[in-house]
Amino acid sequence: MTIARKLQHYIETEGIDYDTVPHHRTATTSQTAEAAHVPGNRLAKSVVVHHEMGYVLAVVPATHRVELSTLQDVMNRRLGLASEEEVSTLFNDCEIGAVPPIGSAYGVPVILDESLDKANDIYFEGGDHRTLVHMSGSSFRNLTRDAQVARFSHSG
Q1: What is the pLDDT of residue 26?
Q2: Pair type for strands 80-81 and 43-51
Q3: What is the pTM of this model?
């Protein structure tokens, strides 16, 4: 697999320039950053959460962890982590754990941690555990332009 079909179609439809960074299969985003030789604070990690009205993609740097209680406060909703089954239904052309942060390609709203809002360039999983997508920060912000931006993560 290279990048997921829905993701590739969406990025190309939006006219965004990107490249891909192949790496050996990894199990965690910190391993991915190391394997691909990219800074962890520029590798966007997606966490799928659910609430009574549906799903949200919480996007943070690979070096950060989502503070679920803070995210609940920001969104004013009770949240929980989506199950693997829910994730595989929403992102049916992606491997589990390799969800891209471009929720609009899948009809899933995004909340973006403010620590990613100023990065010059961004890397993210393209739908498998062997390929990162790389693009400029401005292109990434264009693709996530409908996202709510807030602080809901901490490093560690």
Answers
A1: 87
A2: antiparallel
A3: 0.94
